[in-house]
Design a protein that fits this description.
With 147 residues, the protein is mainly alpha-helical. Helices cover 52% and strands 7% of the residues.
């Protein structure tokens, strides 16, 4: 009693989630989840943790340029909303519009530097951090996901 137990988790690349073989009390994992009673929001949290895993452990992770293009498209959508709507919450997603532009430009550079359609480990860290932040954004949870 009173001690924390950390279980090993598995990374499931085909579904972009993490999973456990043993029962897990998800109260800590889902504590910041927007609507933890709905599966789609829990699934986003599991995907966010998947990207967080590869942000910390990028070694031998094969990220192809399609992930970067997907991320650029989604950020472009939020950037468009942030620049056209005065009450947009997308503007606060990455601190400022200038920083959002810098991130999109950096992603473009990452994609340009890819070899054989694969992103290098040093760029994987940046991309995974952005994918994690996107999954953790309440706006993404409410607009980008359907049950």
């Amino acid at each position: 009693m009173g001690e924390e137990k950390f279980q090993y988790y598995y990374v499931v690349p085909d579904h972009r989630v993490i999973a456990w073989l043993e029962d897990l009390n998800g109260s800590i994992l889902f504590s910041e989840c927007y609507k933890p009673s709905q599966w789609c929001h829990k699934r986003l949290e599991l995907e966010a943790q998947y990207w967080k895993h590869y942000e910390f452990f990028p070694h031998r992770f094969q990220m192809d340029t399609s992930h970067v293009r997907r991320l650029r498209r989604e950020l472009g959508c939020y950037l468009g909303e942030a620049t056209t709507l005065s009450q947009s919450t997308a503007a606060s997603m990455f601190w400022s519009l200038d920083q959002m532009h810098q991130i999109v430009a950096q992603l473009s550079s990452v994609e340009d530097l890819a070899e054989n359609g694969l992103i290098e480990e040093s760029s994987v860290v940046f991309c995974c951090r952005m994918l994690y932040m996107l999954c953790m954004t309440p706006l993404y949870c409410t607009l980008g996901v359907t049950d």
